[in-house]
Amino acid sequence: MKLLLKCTAAALMAAGTLASGAIAPVAAQAVSGIGIADQRRAVVESSAFVNANNARPTTYKAQYDAAQAKSNQIRQQLEPLVNKFNTDVQAPNAQANQAALQQQLGQIQQLREQGSQEVQEILQPVALSEAYVLEQISEKFDQAVRQAMTKRKITIVFETGATLAHNDAYDLTKDITAELNTLIPSAQLVPPQGWLPRQQREQQAAQQAAQQGQARPAAPAAQQPEGR
User: Which Pfam families does UniProt cross-reference here (predicted)?
Assistant: First the structure.
């Protein structure tokens, strides 16, 4: 009986070893026709994006300097208010002065929000530049993906975030970046006067279409024929 058990155990171990040996090479092979790509990384590593980012601090130096000056100004205005608030909160009569403390806190929050909004307005040209560069690259992205797929003989590409795990052999990101570098080696940094991002342009077009539809007079009702 012991001999039979030993033989059976040895046979099972051998079978398991053989099975593992047979499966391992198959698991290591990449399935042809499938690829994954990190769209964001393909764009931000492209030459057009990198060169634009490097040139923007020089082109928009005035805006960056003005935003920094405004931030410093807001910080100087906030510092005494915050210090007073912290002191009053720790005072023995703080519990009885909740209304005054709430008023101080509201003033601090309002000043912070106002300062943040002013800084954003100063940096609005910078934000438009970033959006303009991204839109130029995005217009070539689909073509870059298809060219990379053709060269790698890929029929379907998944976004990296849609996969639980993958082999690097499936990664098409660098191939897409290379195609972008060929299709758009550089992007225009400064948008034309009055330019708006695509989403805002589409929203404006939809609003104008809706307004035109409301302004159009209704068709007159058809006149009923008189009976004889």
Answer: OmpH
The token duo for 95 is: 């519990």
Q: 214 lies in a domain?
A: no
In a domain, 111, yes or no: yes
Identify the domain containing residue 100 by its residue range: 32-197
Give the β-pairing of 34-37 and 156-159.
parallel
Nearest to 171 by CA among 48, 42, 46: 42
Decide: helix, strand or coil at residue 61: helix
Instruction: Evaluate whether 152 touches 172 at the Cβ level (below 8 Å).
Output: yes
Read off the tokens for 70.
């405004």
Q: What is the pTM of this model?
A: 0.74
- Has residue 227 been placed in a domain? no
The two structure tokens encoding residue 190:
């400064």
Alpha helices in the chain (DSSP H): 2-28, 39-44, 47-59, 61-89, 98-122, 124-152, 173-183, 198-215
Q: Which amino acid is at 137?
A: I
Name all contacts of 196-204 with Cβ < 8 Å and 24+ positions apart.
196/128, 197/128, 197/131, 197/132, 197/135, 198/135
* Block residue for tokens 């300062």: 115
Tally of domains within the chain: 1
199-214 tens-digit pLDDT: 999 998 998 888 887 7
SS3 188: coil
As a whole number of angstroms, the distance between CA 201 and CA 192 comes to 14
